Amino acid sequence: MRIKGAGGCQDIRLYETDFQTAWQLIFDCMGQCGIEVQQVDNEHHVAHGRKKSMYYDITLRDMEDGTVQIYFDQHKKYIEVYSFRNDTNTMDQFFKFYETRLEEMHGGIKCPYCGSPVQANNKYCPECGKQLNFNKDVIDNSDEAPGFFEAIFKRHDS
Ligand SMILES: [Zn+2]
């Protein structure tokens, strides 16, 4: 499921692999995307990173059934009510690297809705039929007319 708007974006995905492999792979993929690792919480398994004006919190959760969940949160330093450029490129790139590497390592990708095994290039879940490229689930606030708030809030780009 993907959520866009408020100056950032989030995505939650489910994978079938062991926890340590999944954790290590996060750092490999951050490096490949040019996200500089700034802080690591080894207790709660959160990797904090930064790329230019964007901040990233990537959380790994052990679902204790052989799957792990990645919660990817991209945001700016300050909360923005409206953002005019909603850049999901880095997030898309991260998951592309992640899923490619995972499949090479024979780890599995799971449908986030029903938990069925899916392939990285599947557009729909073969089991529950839900769309997997997340376009249908986008909660997109970026098209809302910014006029009123634009006058009140300034953008924080640094
Ligand atoms: Zn499904």
What do these coordinates show?
This protein is 23% helix and 31% strand. It has helices spanning 19-32, 89-104, 147-152, and strands at 2-5, 8-16, 36-41, 46-51, 54-62, 67-76, 108-110, 117-118. The protein contains three helices and eight strands. The model is unreliable at 134-158 (pLDDT under 50). It binds zinc ion. Zinc ion binds next to loops. Zinc ion binds at residues 111, 113-114, 116, 125, 127-128, 130.
Question: Descriptors for this entry?
Answer:
158 residues, alpha+beta, TATA-Binding Protein, 8-stranded antiparallel sheet, 3 helices, globular, disordered C terminus, binds zinc ion
CATH class: Alpha Beta
Q: Write down the CATH topology.
A: TATA-Binding Protein
Number of strands: 8
**Which range best describes the helical content: under 10%, 10-25%, 25-40%, 40-55%, 55-70% or over 70%?**
10-25%
Mean pLDDT level = 82
Spell out the blueprint of helices and strands:
Layout: E1 2-5, E2 8-16, H1 19-32, E3 36-41, E4 46-51, E5 54-62, E6 67-76, H2 89-104, E7 108-110, E8 117-118, H3 147-152
Antiparallel strand pairs: 1-2, 2-6, 2-7, 3-4, 4-5, 5-6, 7-8
Helix pairs in contact: 1-2
This protein binds zinc ion.
Zinc ion binds next to loops.
